[in-house]
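Model it.
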Amino acid sequence: MAQAEDVPMSRQEFSVAYDGPSRADDHSIDVRNLAPALLAFGRLLREANTEFNGKKSTTKVLVVSDFEHKCFNINFELIVGFYDQIKQLLGLDQVKTAKEILEWIGLLKGPLYGVGLATGYISFLKYLDWKKGQDIIEETVESDPRGITKVTIKGNGNSVCLTPEIYSLSKNPKALRATQDAFLPLGHDGFETRRVSGDEEDTPEDFTPEEVANIAASCVKGIEESKEVNEPDVEETPAWLSVYSPVYDASATNWRFRLGLETIHADITETTIAQDALERGGALSGDTYQVVLEITTHYDSDNNPKQPTYKIKKVMRFVPARTTRQTDLFNPDGA
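Modeled.
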């Protein structure tokens, strides 16, 4: 695998603006509505990049400063990493750049979708809007070497054609859930529309309340129709964990921590937490770690989330409990 510094990158900035007739003089937004939407953009772009460029290509979504004050506007940057294996297997002409990914999703307008709905160049979001949550009939276009799928609405005969990547993305429950969450700020506190724009020469992509309703209906339908047990959602996030109770087995692979108000068991095997505690002579309830925490959520056959599992990927900081009383982690009896 190529080292991080050797991996070519494709970068594209884009902006998302939430707006509404009553928001002209108010540029604030409830963080409870905004936070899930920000995370959802990252999940959606990661799933799309996997569909378009394969699992060996990496993505990172950054929030860029310089907020505008005409509405609630957020500036992002999508960074896509191409590994050498992908270039060798697919060829550079087949690897999707960051801008192309945004166009294929439908967050940006581009030349890919200027040739009509029946050619296989309809974007992911435009397809969800077109579908409106209705039942469909799917068939492979045998004469097309690209693997195009023809999708027809049951009852009215209206059809579109989808590239294999977009067709697969439309069946991906994780991408559909992320799409739903990306629209969460709309419908609250006067926010009714969302506009996405890229470079100055790009035409902004507007999403009206009707389009959002159509997209949401298609997301719900797609999630309900998914019969396969999904791959788990895996997220890495910064977190503070405090020791809930000392663990007296030096070889224990899981420790019990407090994560906010929740008590969790976290895998510590990729860290030196146990070794460091041994060198300190023990651990205290209340010892605190600032960590990079991996949260894995599995789904059952009905796409309902199960209890997540946790793994500490990296320890950033250790803060000892504020007490002089020390519990010997590995020799509690003092022998």
